[in-house]
Design brief:
By secondary structure, the chain is an alpha+beta fold. Helices cover about 35% and strands about 15% of the residues. It is an enzyme of class 3 (hydrolase).
C-alpha cells in the first residue's frame, strides 16, 4: 500500500509500488525434487470443517538458529541478536556476498511505490575489471530440496533481522503443490517474546491483497457477470468521470492504465471508528483522470479498491464476505481475513507492527480502500493461495478458477515499453530476463511483504517482515534474488555497446517525473521534489538518479540495442519510448510496469524552479530579518525613510505580506514533515492546516501586488539605488511565490488528494 520510489522520504510514504516478475531464458530443466525431502501439505479444509487446534507454546529463549535442521525441527526461529551470529557459520552453504565494489541487482517490491525505486531479480553485478563467467561455465545449480533451501534461508534471514532491526519475518516456499519451507524468524511481539509462527501468526501483506481482488474479478468474468472491456459505470452506483469521453474499464483497472492520478487521502484511518464504507470512500475521494486510458501506466490503489467494490456490487455480498466464501474458505485459509478490525479469533495472533527499529508497535493499520490492502494472513495460508495460482486454479479439492482464466491473469496483457516487462491482469511480470516470475509486493507502515511465483518451475515464495521499511526491502531483495540466482541461474547475455550510445544518451538526458503522481492537488509538490534526472557520462553510459545499487551507488547503463540499455556489470535493462524523435517515457525492469518516468515540461523543470524558489524564499527571509535591524540603525542615527504617506503605507503592508510568505513556506515544510513521519497524517487530520496554508497562499497574491506597486513608487522617487534594487528583488520574490502557489496546486476548492 505504502509507497516508496525515491530519495524523498515523505514521497516514499505516499506511494506504493508492486513487484515485477522475471522473464524467460532457455535453460536446462532443474533436477527433480526428492520426495523424501518434501513436506506434503494437509488437504484444504472444507468450508464446514472445524478450525485446527492452536499449536502449543513456543520457546521464547533467544538463541542462534541452526543452519541445517530437519523439516520438522526449528519451524519457529526466535530472534537472533547480532552478537549471537557466527559469521563463519553463516557463510556455510550460502552464496558468498559480492566483493567490495560489486553491486547486487535489487529485487522489485511494492510500493506505493515513491520514492525508493523497487529492486530487480537479477544476477550479482560484477565489479569493474571483474571477469563474468560465460554461459555454461558457472557451477551447476543445486536441486531445490527442502534441506538445502532451509539451510540457505537460515543463513540469510536471521542475520538480516539483526542487521536491519527487524522484529520478525515469515517465509514460505512451495513447489508443485507441496511446501518446501514454512518458517518463522524473530518475534511477532517483542515485549512478550512471542515468536513468529508461519502457521499461526498473521501478518499484513499490504498490496499483495490486490491479487485476491483480481482473482475475484476473474471468477465473476467466468460466470459472465463482468466484462473486462465494459465501462465500469455499468456496475456502479456512482459515476467515474470519463477522460475526454473515454470511460474506464476493468481491464484498465487491472493493468493500472485507467489514468487516475495518485490518491492518498484517508488511505489509512486512525482507528476503526474512522473507517468509511467502501462505496462512500470511493465516491468522496475519486481522483482526477490525468492520462488517456490505456496509454500511461500509473499504479493506483483507488483503481484496485474500485474493482473490489464492483465485485461487491455484482455479487451482492460485501467484499469481505465474498472473499471469505469464494477464496479463503475453499482453500482452507482459516487464519486469514480482510476484515477490519480482525475477528476475535484471529486478533490475538496478529503480529505487532514496528515502523522503526526498537520503537513501539504502531497498532493495527486500518485501510479505507480495503480491497487494495487490508488482508491479514498467515504464511501457511498464503502457501495455499500460491499453490492454487500455480495449479491452474485448483488446489486439493478447491477450484478457484478454470485454467484459461488463470492463464489470462498471468499472461502478458500490456507492455508499456518495448524491451521491458509486461503486466498481466493485475500480476506484475518479470519476463525480459531470468526465469519467468510473476507476483506482487506490498508495504504498510510496519510490514514489507512479497509474493513471487515461478510458474515454469511450479515454485512460489512469500515473505513478510515487521520492522523498518528499508531493512524489510533489503531482506526481500536478498532473499528472492538469492533463491532465484541459486536454484534457477540464467547468466546475462554478452551484448556489444552500440555506436549510437552517446547520441541516444544525450537524447534521453534531462529531468523526469514518475507517472504515479498527482496533478490537481498539493501532492503535485512531489513531482517537483521527488523527480529523477538522467545524465550521460564521458564513457557514453547513462545513469538515472533514482536507480541505485543496494549500497547506494547510481547504476550505470550502456546501450546494447536501439534505445535499450543494459546495466554495466549486471543484467537490468533500461529503455526509452519515443514518439517520432521525442522521448515520452523512460523506464527500467528495476521498477514495476505500472509506472514509468516521463519528461518534465520545461515550464516547471526543477533545474530552474528549485533554484528560483530557493532564492525567492532566501530573499524574503533575509528581508524579515534585516528590516528590524535597519529600523534600529535608522532610529539610532535619527534618520527617516524619506517616503511619502502612501509609500509608507504600502511598505507596512508589504512587510506584513512578506512575513506571511515566510510563514507559508514554513507551514508547508511542517505539513510535509508530518506526512513524512506517518502516512496516517493523510487521514484528514491536517485539513485545517491545509486550509490555513491555502489562505496564506491567497494572501501572497495581494503581497505580490503591493510589492510591485511599492517598487514602482520607489522607482519614481528621488534616487536611492540600493533601496530600488531591494524593492525590485522583493517584488520578484513575491511574484515567484505566487507562481509556486498556483503551479503546485496548493490552492484548490476541495481538499481531495
Amino acid at each position: 500500500m505504502k509507497a516508496r520510489a525515491n530519495k524523498s522520504g515523505w514521497l516514499a510514504a505516499l506511494l506504493a509500488a508492486g513487484l515485477c516478475g522475471a522473464g524467460v531464458w532457455a535453460q536446462p530443466a532443474p533436477r527433480p525434487v526428492d520426495p523424501a525431502e518434501v513436506r506434503p501439505d494437509p488437504p484444504p479444509m472444507s468450508a464446514d470443517a472445524p478450525a485446527p487446534a492452536a499449536p502449543g507454546a513456543f520457546p521464547a529463549a533467544t538463541m542462534p538458529v541452526p543452519l541445517r535442521t530437519s523439516p520438522v525441527e526449528a519451524r519457529i526461529a526466535p530472534a537472533v541478536p547480532a552478537e549471537a551470529i557466527d559469521p563463519q557459520a553463516l557463510a556455510l552453504d550460502v552464496i558468498p556476498a559480492p566483493k567490495a565494489g560489486t553491486a547486487r541487482a535489487p529485487v522489485l517490491i511494492d510500493l506505493p511505490p515513491p520514492i525508493e525505486l523497487p529492486a530487480a531479480l537479477a544476477e550479482p553485478a560484477a565489479a569493474d575489471g571483474a571477469i563474468l563467467l560465460e554461459p555454461g561455465t558457472r557451477p551447476p545449480a543445486p536441486a531445490v530440496s527442502a534441506a538445502d533451501l532451509e539451510a540457505y534461508v537460515d543463513g540469510l534471514v536471521p542475520s538480516a533481522l539483526a542487521r536491519g532491526g527487524l522484529a520478525g519475518a515469515v517465509v514460505v516456499v512451495v513447489r508443485d503443490g507441496r511446501t518446501l519451507l514454512s518458517k518463522g524468524y524473530g518475534y511477532a511481539d517483542l515485549a512478550r517474546r512471542r515468536p513468529m509462527d508461519p502457521a499461526r501468526t498473521l501478518v499484513r501483506p499490504g498490496s499483495v491483497s490486490k491479487l485476491f481482488v483480481w482473482t475475484a474479478v476473474m471468477q465473476l468474468v467466468e460466470q459472465g457477470r463482468l466484462d473486462l472491456d465494459a465501462d465500469v459505470n455499468r456496475y456502479l452506483d456512482f459515476r467515474i468521470r470519463d477522460y475526454a469521453g473515454q470511460p474506464a474499464t476493468l481491464r484498465q483497472l487491472m493493468t493500472h492504465s485507467a489514468g487516475f492520478e495518485e490518491s492518498t487521502k484517508h488511505l489509512f484511518a486512525r482507528d476503526a471508528a474512522h473507517l468509511q464504507p467502501l462505496g462512500r470512500y470511493l465516491r468522496e475521494v475519486q481522483p482526477q483522470r490525468i492520462y488517456p486510458p490505456g496509454r500511461v501506466p500509473a499504479y493506483s490503489n483507488y483503481g484496485a479498491a474500485l474493482a473490489g467494490y464492483i465485485v461487491q456490487r455484482v455479487s451482492g455480498l460485501p467484499f469481505d464476505d465474498y472473499v471469505e466464501r469464494r477464496i479463503l474458505a475453499p482453500l482452507g485459509m482459516r487464519h486469514s481475513s480482510f476484515r477490519q478490525p480482525l475477528p476475535k479469533g484471529l486478533a490475538a495472533d496478529l503480529a505487532q507492527g514496528y515502523a522503526t527499529a526498537g520503537g513501539p508497535p504502531i497498532g493495527f493499520e486500518y485501510v479505507n480502500p480495503a480491497p487494495a490492502g487490508s488482508l491479514s494472513a498467515t504464511a501457511q495460508d498464503m502457501a495455499a493461495f500460491m499453490n492454487a495460482q500455480l495449479g491452474a486454479g485448483r488446489y486439493g479439492d478447491a477450484v478457484l478458477l478454470q485454467p484459461h482464466s488463470v492463464q489470462r491473469l498471468h499472461a502478458a496483457n500490456w507492455r508499456p515499453i518495448a524491451g521491458l516487462d509486461a503486466i498481466g491482469l493485475g500480476f506484475f511480470r518479470r519476463d525480459g530476463r531470468g526465469p519467468l516470475a510473476i507476483g506482487h509486493g506490498g508495504a504498510t507502515e510496519a510490514f514489507q511483504s512479497m509474493l513471487v511465483l515461478l510458474p515454469e518451475h511450479g515454485v512460489g515464495l512469500f515473505v513478510s517482515a515487521s520492522g523498518p521499511g528499508r531493512a524489510g526491502r533489503a531482506l526481500h531483495r536478498d532473499l528472492v534474488d538469492g533463491v532465484i540466482r541459486r536454484y534457477f541461474p540464467s547468466p546475462a547475455p554478452a551484448r556489444p555497446t552500440l555506436a549510437t550510445a552517446r547520441l541516444h544518451g544525450e537524447q534521453i538526458a534531462g529531468h523526469y517525473e514518475n507517472s504515479r503522481s498527482s496533478a490537481s492537488n498539493f501532492l503535485a509538490i512531489a513531482r517537483l521534489l521527488g523527480g529523477a534526472s538522467i545524465r550521460v557520462h564521458d564513457d557514453a553510459t547513462v545513469s538515472v538518479s533514482t536507480l541505485r545499487t543496494p549500497d547506494g551507488r547510481p547504476k550505470r547503463w550502456r546501450e546494447v540495442g536501439p534505445y535499450l540499455w543494459q546495466e554495466v556489470g549486471g543484467d537490468s535493462l533500461l529503455a526509452a519510448k519515443l514518439r517520432g524523435q521525442q522521448v515520452i517515457a523512460v523506464s527500467s525492469d528495476d521498477v514495476p510496469a505500472a509506472m514509468w518516468l516521463q519528461p518534465v515540461p520545461a515550464w516547471r523543470s526543477p533545474a530552474w524552479v528549485l533554484p528560483v524558489l530557493g532564492l525567492a524564499f532566501a530573499l524574503q527571509l533575509a528581508a524579515v530579518v534585516l528590516w528590524p535591524v535597519a529600523a534600529l540603525v535608522r532610529r539610532h542615527l535619527r534618520r527617516g525613510l524619506g517616503l511619502d504617506a502612501r509609500a509608507l503605507r504600502w511598505r507596512r503592508w508589504l512587510q506584513a505580506g512578506v512575513v506571511a510568505n515566510v510563514a507559508l513556506v514554513s507551514l508547508w515544510a511542517w505539513i510535509l514533515a508530518r506526512i513524512e513521519s506517518s502516512v496516517r497524517m493523510l487521514d484528514g487530520g491536517l485539513d485545517g492546516w491545509l486550509r490555513l496554508a491555502q489562505g496564506l497562499g491567497l494572501m501572497s497574491v495581494a503581497t505580490a501586488t503591493v510589492a510591485v506597486l511599492y517598487a514602482h513608487r520607489l522607482w519614481r522617487s528621488p534616487p536611492h539605488r540600493l533601496r530600488r534594487a531591494c524593492a525590485v528583488a522583493i517584488a520578484l520574490a513575491c511574484a515567484a511565490t505566487v507562481w509556486a502557489v498556483f503551479a503546485l496546486k496548493t490552492v484548490t476548492p476541495a481538499l481531495v488528494y
